[in-house]
Amino acid sequence: MALKNTYRRNVASDGKLEMSLQEFKKWIKRFDLDKDGKISKEELREAIRANGGGWFSRIIKGGRGIKAADANGDGYIDENEFNNLVEFAQRNLGIRILSY
Ligand SMILES: [Ca+2]
Ligand SMILES: [Ca+2]
Predict the structure, then answer these.
(1) d(Cα 67, Cα 8) in Å, to the nearest integer?
(2) Structure pTM?
(3) Ligand 2: distance of its center to the CA of 38 in Å?
(4) Which numbered ligand comes closest to the C-alpha of 30?
(5) Which of 17, 53, 86, 92 might form a disulfide with 57, Cβ 3.0–4.6 angstroms?
(6) Distances in Å between the alpha carbon of 65 and those of 9, 22, 69, 77, 99?
(7) Which ligand does the CA of 36 lie closest to?
(8) What local confidence, expressed as pLDDT, does residue 37 receive?
(9) Which ligand is nearest to the CA of 75?
């Protein structure tokens, strides 16, 4: 299956990257390589390799983003925990998630 780059990158005048919640989730889900509905650390690492770092690598650095998002501590980010990742991205990564 070809992974098409469907999310848009919009940078606001204050330098923040803007995307909708839907786009963000869709984007994160591209990294769910085994399609079990959860993102593992390994899948995130793979994602960094494929994307060559960028702001996304900052989510993963030292597992900080995962720790912040992984509410039940099982090492995976599941559907419910995506929202925590969204929070983390907004607080720490200069990303503005637009909800509409
Ligand atoms: Ca997975
Ligand atoms: Ca979890």
Answers:
(1) 27
(2) 0.68
(3) 8
(4) 1
(5) 53
(6) 21, 19, 6, 10, 21
(7) 1
(8) 92
(9) 2
Closest Cα to residue 12, out of 85, 99, 96?
96
Of all ligands present, the nearest one to the C-alpha of 41 is 1
| Ligand 1 centre distance from Cα of residue 13 (Å) | 35
Q: How far is the CA of 14 from the centre of ligand 2 (A)?
A: 33
**If you measure from the C-alpha of residue 37 to the centroid of ligand 1, how many angstroms do you get, rounded to a whole number?**
6
Residues with C-beta atoms within 5 A of ion ligand 1: 32, 34, 36, 38
At the topology level of CATH, where does 3-98 sit? Recoverin; domain 1 (1.10.238)
- How far apart are alpha carbons 74 and 67 in whole angstroms? 10
pLDDT tens for the chain, residues 1 to 100: 444 444 456 788 888 889 898 888 888 888 899 999 999 988 877 877 776 666 666 666 656 777 888 999 998 999 899 889 888 888 887 889 997 6
Q: Where are the domains of the chain?
A: 3-98
Residue 56: predicted pLDDT: 65
